[in-house]
Every structure is written in C-alpha cells, then in structure tokens.
Specification:
The complex is a heterodimer of chains A (about 200) and B (about 400). By secondary structure, chain A is an alpha+beta fold. Chain A has 5 helices and 10 strands, in the order αββββαβαβαββββα. In chain A, a hairpin with a 4-residue loop joins β9 and β10. Chain B is globular, with a radius of gyration of 21 Å. Classes of the chains: A alpha+beta (about 200), B mainly beta (about 400). At the A-B interface, α1 and α2 of A face α1 of B.
Chain lengths: ~200, ~400
C-alpha cells in the first residue's frame, strides 16, 4: 500500500496548491510568438442555466476555450484547476477575458452536473461552462478538430486542447496540458490585451 | 471564491483523479523520438506500421500498411499500399499530429505534404489532403521532419524556394492551413522540443538541390554544421552550436528536466553531446568518434535513457551506445547485416527496433531494400530477428525504397 500512501500524499500536496511543484518549471516567455492561426469557428452553446453563449458575442476581449468533461481523471481536472488560477490572476490585474469550458460528454454532463463542476473549480462570472445535445455539439467539436473515443471504464479519450482567441475572434495560440501554464497563459492574454488596446 | 476556499473543495476531485489514475492501467507512453506533445498509443504492443515508401522504378510514392501484430495470421506482411497519385516525390520522413489522428508525410524532392487520416480507421489510412505549392506558400523547400505541437505541425525545410541557400521551419495547422515560416542560418533537418526549458533545437544538413544529386556532386563547403537553439515560445534563435558537419538526428534525454542529449554528425562520423548550463547557455562537444565507414543515418533512444542506437549507412551496422554515464558514453553492442541501414523505430517498451535501409534515391548504393527487426534484451544486447524480413527488392508491384516508419 506504499503507492496509495504516496498517491494520497501527492494529492494532498496538490489540493493545497502545490500540485505544480512536481511539474517541471518552464521558463516564461514574455514575448510569445502568436501568429494568427485561423479564424475561431463560431458556436452557440448553452450554459448551466440554459442561456445561450455565443462565442462571437464575446468579441472585444480574449477568450480561452477548453474542451473537458466532468468525470475525466486525466488532463481535465488539472486544466480546470489552472484555469481557475488564471481567472484569479486576470481579475487581479483587471484584464478583461472570458473562459469557456465545453463539455465533450454532454450525455453524462447535464447542466446540473456541469454546474456542480464549475462550482468545485471556483468559477466566477466570465467563466462559462457550456454544453449542447450531442447532435448539435458534433459540428462544434469537428470545427475545433476535437473528437472523442469511449474507453473502458467510462473514460473518454479526447485531445483536450485549449484555444486562445484574441479580441478580433482569431485563434492565436493552442495549448495542451504540457503547454498550458496559467502564468504563461496570463502573459499571453496580457500581450493580446495590450495589442488590442494599442489599435 | 479565493484560493484558500477553492483548494479544499477540489480535494475530492483531485483525490479521485489521482487514485483512478493509479488504479486504471493508463495508456502506454508514446514511442521515443516523437514529439512530446503526441498522444500516447493505447496500451499493449503495436498492431500496425505505416511505412513511407518510394518505388525504385516507376509509379507513385505510397504509404505501406504493415501488420506487426504478433497474434495476427498476417504478421509481417504488407496489408495494403495507399498511393499518393504522383511519382518522384521522394518519400522520406513522417510525423503524427498531436492527437495521433493524422500523419503528415513529407516529400524531399517535390516539397509536397501528404496528410493521411489514421484516426477514422487505423488499419485503413486515407489520403485526406495534398499540399502542392509549399515553396510558393512558405518561401522554403526540401521538407524533412514533420513535428507535432498542439493543434499544429512544425516542419523543417532544408533550403530556399529554388532548392538552394538556407532553410527554416514552417508551421501549419493539423488540417493543413499555412501559418508561418521561420528562417534558419543553416539547412534545417530535424526538430526536438523540450517543453520544460521552453527550448527547441533544430539540426542541419545540406540544401535540397544537393541532397537530390549523386553523392559525388555534394560540396562539403556547403555542408551545414550547426544546431540552432530556440526560445520556443517566441520562435527566436538564441544560440547556434557549431560542430562536425551535417548533424542529423538530435535526441534530448527523456527524463523530465534532463539537460543533455546527443546528435550524430553524418559527415564527421561522430556523436556530439549538447548540455544546457544553469545559465541557460548550451555547450556542445564531441562525445565519441564512430568508425570512418559508419556514415551514421539515424539516432534513436531507449525509453529509460540508458542507450542510444546509431545506424551506419556505410557499414550496415546497428550500434547500441551505453549513455548511463552521459558524459562518458561507450559502445555497448553491435549488430551487422542490414546493408545501407538507415531509419530505425524503437517500440515504446524499448524491446523492438525496426530498421529500414533506403536513405535517398540519389545516394542509395544497394538495391537490397528491406524492413528488418532487431530484438533488444533487458541487458541492452541486440539480436536480429531471422524470420521478420520484408524484402522490398522483390515486392509484387516492383522494388521500392523504404524509409520512415510510424507505429500504431
């Protein structure tokens, strides 16, 4: 049972805000190269209260779009925890930005489940947790080159990328777990904010 | 909600996540020498190999689909070939996209990119898109290594649009939309990214017009001899490491935060070691001389950072070097008998090393084209499998040259 003790010790550290200590520290790049990757495909999905959230209506500020599901035991909880810290940093710096977490598992993630998940990660206003029925979600996933594959026992394999969209609605960076660090994402969003403000 | 209130509320989620992760057999690690951003294979031994090939006579370049599932009745057989619809492309290197959903296959001669869908049905790849006008689009030619980053591919390009001069690195979306080009002061060959240090290394070789010429036309004065060090996020070159000429394959030790790795110099017959210092500056020095007739073609690494494998195009030898003392590497074992040995691909368990033996149509000296398999024992000793032998010199559709491989 040594592994269990080690796991619980590691998780305990994680829960107290030190989970990133074991992650290699990446030197931050103050001036990231953020070419226009492409126009961000627009979508309209529903938040946990059933209200429509349209990506193009969030224009004018940076938007970070993540693809997650609530029973995920791999990348998603780490990404959501980092997004939570990112939202706090952005709020403290008064940088306008929106976060959007799209569930790729709408059959299990009903509005109530997704709402509870948002609450667990301390989501504040401006962080949208959104879903849609599978048939309506499918074209959104395809437009972002996302896909899902059922794997036992109940896991969903999916790419779990995050797309950083600028104020003009263009994808400027794509992160995965190995790339996504809230400190670096903060610098990237701040750079996009300054770029938009200077126009 | 502030962090102090938030974190205890996350405890159940993170505990469940960690315990589930510990209890459930997760996917195997990705194979070595691939981008660290590529999703791992499903657990268990490989089932299928994709081999990027060009005919030795007439006909279209093609992707061969090979059964490498030991439990299969057709183990060791070519199941199908997916032709790309044009000849003379010079099939060479390939790379998975970050999600393993697509393969980008680059053509040295025509600079085309062929994008195959391998997600829909891994046993039946489909040619999804061909990008024809790469030199016009990117200002660069002679694509070598496609390398995955999230949602995008980086591809090293040897030279300018006319096949001469220095090259660079180009970026495309996974689907094939062009994003950007970044120039290099050399003829870019291969990429390795170490995310922990926000660092990318790019090795080098020769311009396109030279590598598509017979070997006696290669001009040593034009050989590149450097590995560039990049701030990866800002895509800026911060250092140029100069050593023996034509530093081809470059591998960074896999253990997180490892500061060192190796390159092979094809024209210098040597192994070079790079190391990142505490100040972020890199040193670069010769780690070992190879035999004068080796002409190393590829360098692969074991998943435990214990060995690197060198293929000798000149002598037909595969060498295992013990790198457990990184600054004092030593030759551990050799296997003979793969004439013109070139590309290698090591399985993610480190036990099986596949080898092909065509370099470039312009410089191949033996027509005995084949795919062979070398078994690696726990003590690092190698033994060629006498039964696994796909002889492409006698392929039913005519002889063909095998180069780069990917497993699924």
């Amino acid at each position: 049972m040594r592994w269990l003790a080690a796991t619980l010790a590691a998780v305990s550290l994680a829960a107290h805000g030190h989970e990133e200590k074991s992650r290699p520290a990446s030197p931050l790049a103050k001036t990231s190269y953020m070419a226009v990757i492409r126009e961000a495909p627009d979508f309209t999905l529903r938040d946990v209260e059933g209200k429509s959230v349209r990506l193009s209506e969030l224009r004018g500020k940076s938007v970070l779009v993540a693809f997650i599901y609530t029973t995920c035991t791999g990348a998603c909880p780490l990404l959501s925890a980092r997004m939570s810290r990112l939202q706090q940093k952005l709020a403290a710096a008064h940088i306008p930005a929106a976060l959007v977490s799209v569930t790729v598992d709408p059959e299990r993630d009903d509005a109530k489940t997704l709402g509870a998940y948002a609450k667990r990660f301390g989501a504040r206003p401006g962080w949208y947790f959104v879903r849609e029925e599978p048939a309506r979600l499918a074209p959104v996933l395809a437009a972002y080159d996302e896909w899902t594959r059922r794997e036992p026992p109940g896991e969903l394999d999916h790419p779990a990328r995050l797309h950083l969209i600028d104020a003009a609605g263009r994808v400027r960076e794509i992160y995965s777990l190995a790339f996504f660090d809230e400190e670096q994402a903060f610098l990237d969003i701040r750079a996009l904010h300054r770029e938009a403000s200077s126009r | 909600m502030n962090a102090r209130r938030l974190l205890p509320s996350l405890l159940p989620t993170l505990v469940a996540s960690a315990i589930a992760g510990a209890l459930v057999a997760g996917p195997a690690a990705a194979e070595t020498c691939l981008s660290p951003y590529i999703k791992a294979r499903a657990a268990g031994p490989e089932k299928v190999m994709y081999l990027w090939m060009l005919p030795a006579g007439q006909g279209s370049d093609f992707l061969a689909v090979i059964d490498v599932d030991l439990a299969s009745a057709t183990y060791g057989k070519v199941l199908k070939r997916i032709e790309v619809g044009s000849a003379g492309n010079e099939a060479h290197h390939m790379g998975y996209t970050d999600d393993r959903g697509r393969i980008w296959a680059a053509a040295l001669n025509t600079s085309r990119f062929f994008i195959f869908d391998v997600r829909t049905d891994p046993m039946n790849p489909k040619l999804e898109r061909v990008i024809d006008d790469v030199p016009k689009l990117t200002g660069l030619s002679g694509p070598h290594t496609p390398y995955a980053i999230p949602g995008r591919m980086l591809i090293t390009m040897a030279s300018g649009p006319d096949g001469t001069g220095t090259g660079g690195v180009v970026e495309f979306t996974n689907e094939g939309k062009y994003i950007a080009s970044h120039k290099t002061p050399n003829n870019a060959y291969e990429i390795v990214v170490k995310p922990e240090f926000n660092t990318m290394l790019v090795s080098s070789w020769v311009p396109q017009k030279m590598f598509m010429s017979p070997l006696d036309k290669w001009d040593p004065k034009q050989f590149s001899n450097s590995v560039t060090v990049w701030n990866f996020k800002s895509r800026k070159i911060v250092q140029e490491l100069k050593g023996d000429p034509v530093p081809l394959a470059t591998r960074w030790a896999l253990k997180p935060n490892s500061t060192y790795g190796y390159s092979i110099s094809n024209a210098g017959n040597s192994i070079w070691m790079f190391r990142r210092g505490k100040d972020g500056k890199f040193s670069y020095r010769k780690a070992a001389d190879l035999s004068s007739n080796c002409l190393p073609g590829d360098l692969r690494q074991s998943p435990d950072d214990r060995y690197v494998y060198v293929s000798c195009i000149g002598s037909g030898e595969i060498q295992a070097w013990d790198i457990s003392r990184p600054d004092k590497i030593r030759l551990h074992d050799t296997v003979q008998g793969v004439v013109q040995a070139n590309m290698m691909h090591l399985t993610n368990d480190g036990k099986r090393l596949y080898v092909t033996n065509s370099a470039i149509s312009s410089i191949d000296f033996s027509p005995r084209y084949a795919l062979r398999l070398i078994h690696v024992a726990p003590d690092g000793r190698m033994k060629q499998d006498p039964f696994f032998h796909i002889d492409f010199s006698k392929a039913p559709d005519g002889p063909a040259r095998p180069h780069d491989m990917l497993l699924n």
